[in-house]
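Working notes for the structural subgroup meeting. M.R. asked for a predicted model of this chain before we commit to crystallization trials. I am recording the input and output together here so anyone reviewing the notebook later can reproduce the run.

Input as submitted:
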Amino acid sequence: TQKQALDIIIMERRKELIFRGIRWLDLKRLNKDPRFAKTLRRFVNGQNYTLEPGDKRYLYPLPDDVIQIAGIPQNER
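Returned structure, recorded in token form:
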């Protein structure tokens, strides 16, 4: 089926593109689709960190010089 094919493709991307920073982009893109949305949870130094699908922390802050030159607003975080 179409869903099975997409699941296979996503799993292969995870395996083949490991340690290349592509996973972050896939998570950001796929979290827009409820079928593939994942909540990331990490426990570091006794503290829990959670990143929900659609969270504004997926956006990187824009450099200040780009904001001044282009006159665009900073990404909300």
